[in-house]
Amino acid sequence: MSKKTKAWMLTAMTLAAPLATGAFVAPTAAHAAGGLISIIVNDPANNYWLTEGKVAQAEAEALGYKATVGANKGDTNSESNLIDTAITNKSVAIILDPANASGSIGAVKKAVAAGIPVFLVNAEINQQGLAKAQLVSNNAQGAAIGAQEWVKDVGQQGNYAELLGAPSDNNAATRSNGYETVLSQYPGLVKTASQVANWDRTQGHDKMQSMLQAHPDIIGVISGNDEMALGAIAALKEAGKIGSIKVGGFDGSPDAVAAIKAGELQYTVLQPVAIFSKKAVDEADEFLKTGKTGASAEKQLFDCILITKDNVGDFVAPFTLKQ
Fold it and tell me: Over the stretch 8-27, which tens digit does the pLDDT of each residue have?
């Protein structure tokens, strides 16, 4: 196992270490009987969110709870309906990947008003003090290491394109800004095209096609997530340019890892979704038992790790590296 991998695992374990915080709240009768934890992810058609839901559900059931997984698919109305269902079903806690940084605040407030603690994973909301915890990848750190690797791959001269995630998700802007912080240090690299592809592979493909038509001279594509990057790769294959235009991703999905092994994707930035999804359930369990989450702060950042052809063999399961 590489030194980087070991360092990342040590960081993850440190972040997972419990630190007491929060006021005491007596355990509920529902928890004493096990109770239901409602898990709401974005879209399980994306393997990242599928893993998020599976890991959280497995941990909840291992701790003696019942668990259900629903999908808001990035829609706040669907999310609100799922929160209503969680309230009706007398959930003892909700694990939520919010659909919208601002638009999901109302849904969280509704759950809190019903006396159900909410634990956010992967994405944050633009209000502190509502959720008991917000567990997210360190997107700025991940974007920085991704951009640094991207420069190594494409060089320091030429025009490039960017694929951006959903504007309603703060992660999209954080990653794009992180890329810009690094790439702006290289005046020979010029961003001549950028398109929003909403984290989606099909949109990534279609937006890549349009950018190629308008800017056939680009030398690389930097993407806000793996799905958009994989869509871009498909478009580059169709155009016969997969060998001349280099693509970087973000998430650490199995498909991205396969693309790295195939020499089609230069790198991906692994988000430790399997770690923080499990940790969110553990914190919910701790809160229900003691009134404390066990974390030192509401917002908790989990460092990402770079996966390239050099360490791709350390990838052993969805969003997991060898320990």
Answer: 443 343 333 333 333 333 34
